[in-house]
Specification:
Length: 121
Amino acid sequence: QVQLVESGGGLVQPGGSLRLSCAASGSIFSINVMGWYRQAPGKRRELVAAITSGGDTNYADSVKGRFTISRDNLKETVYLQMSSLKPEDTAVYYCNADIKLHWGVPSSDYWGQGTQVTVSS
């Protein structure tokens, strides 16, 4: 059973910083892309940032220059460092990973349970 467990959300003032973590656990053969999505009330879930196993990254335009995604392949963990936070960053943030359980078997998408980030004064 594969699990993605997120941590690090909370309440922060505008201009502040938060660091999210997401650790994968279970019987995992390999992890390709890991990423963060977010969903604000009444809005669709959107990609925030993603990173490949080789370290290539992709960011939503709205977070470029403010957020940094990184990963530790040995710990099977992905991080999202968020700085200069704005009220519009308020959302539930979800970890996502493309995971292969066995050699020769297609990979599948896994999701974390979500962690709330609230940016407010």
